[in-house]
Amino acid sequence: MINGLFDEGTDKEGTYSVFFSYIIVVMVLSLFKNMERYFVDREYRITIDKNRVHIMNYLEIVDFSDTRIVVRYDGGESVLRGTNLVVSKMQDDEILIEGKICSVEV
Questions:
Q1: What is the DSSP string of the chain?
Q2: Which of 66, 69, 89, 98 is the most buried (most CB within 10 A)?
Q3: Model confidence pTM above 0.70
């Protein structure tokens, strides 16, 4: 298509129209892909406060007790140690752990 773009005897206006329509579609698809990366955050995040740990984008809880919680994510596992640990909020990819947090290994 591009090789014949400037050949004699071709419909240049029609070819230009198809070519520029294709470019616009590619640009719009690229824009949507960038917007998805911005709005849909899939990066593993862990926020540590005084008596709570908020974890986002985890895969599964591997081990759970009131003194130790192991959470698996794409890059490995996080180990939380403390006392009176409880899961106070849990969704598909988000968890909130409360209690006396002694250490967090990522």
A1: --TTTT-TTS-HHHHHHHHHHHHHHHHHHHHHHHHHHHHS--S-EEEE-SSEEEEES--EEEEE-SSEEEEEETTEEEEEEEEEEEEEEE-SSEEEEEEEEEEEE-
A2: 69
A3: no
